[in-house]
Amino acid sequence: MMVFENIQFQLVDTPPISKDFVDSWMIDLLRRADMLMVVVDLHCGTLQQLDDSLAILQELRIYAEGSPVPDGLTKTPFFKKLLIVVNKMDTADDEEDFAVFLELSEITLPAIGLSASTGRNLPALPRKIYELSDIIRIYTKAPGSKSSDRGVPFVLPQQSTLENLAAKIHKDFAAHLKYAKVWGQGVHDGQMVHRDYVLHDGDVVEIHL
After folding, report:
1. In this predicted model, what pLDDT tens digit does every residue of 73-92 receive, in sequence order?
2. One domain for residues 32 and 129
3. Tens of pLDDT along 58-68?
4. Which pLDDT score is estimated for 20?
């Protein structure tokens, strides 16, 4: 589990994929994952590694979000958030090599350079994953309480509404929801909102049933 501030992401370290063989369990895992990190070596044919990896994913009908559906595809495609992780950026000189890779590859996918060995730029990875996940963290407080639970937030997709939050708290909450008071972005503290209100990251919500 990778910690980012007060939430966690589950990372699954898989065997390398190759043109020759990809195990069936791994294909299923890749298709079910919320995000895929394609890890390539900065010092060993980086461009070819990237091209080969993306080609293998396409053979498995896995494409980056926003990609067009290939002509003639008869089976269901799987669109995923893709993050390109360029490893072995161990030194300042390697940062220049990473910049050259970005220029030569003309990559439009999100990419980050780091070093798993030395830890260089490694702390930036959790934030990058969080930013690409398109999620928000929502805190709740009991009616009449002066403070909210700032421990573990409810995690929802961006553009989620108050009704979505209520349903995540308990299946009956959405049906009995009357209104809520919200402290956060775009509202006055304690402003009353209704079930179609779109929540923002860090909002504190007091639900009334």
Report:
1. 999 999 999 999 999 999 99
2. yes
3. 999 999 999 98
4. 86
Tokens 């003639």 correspond to: 72
Between the CA of residue 39 and those of 9, 85, 115, what are the distances in Å?
17, 5, 11
State the Cα–Cα distance between residues 38 and 64, nearest whole angstrom. Answer: 11
Q: How far is CA 168 from the centre of its chain?
A: 19
146 and 60 in a common domain: no
Q: 26 near 70, Cβ under 8 Å?
A: no
Coil, helix or strand for 183?
strand
pLDDT tier at 177 (50, 70, 90 boundaries)?
A: very high
- Determine the structural domain holding residue 125 and report its residue range: 2-133
DSSP string, 55-81: HHHHHTTEEETTPPPPTT--S--EEEE
What CATH code is carried by the domain that includes residue 176? 3.10.20.30
6 & 97 share domain: yes
36 neighbors 83 (Cβ within 8 angstroms): yes
**44 near 101, Cβ under 8 Å?**
no
DSSP state of 158: T
DSSP string, 85-142: EEE---SHHHHHHHHHHHHHHT--S-EEE--TTT-TTTTHHHHHHHHHHTEEEEEE--
Same domain, yes or no: 72 and 171 = no
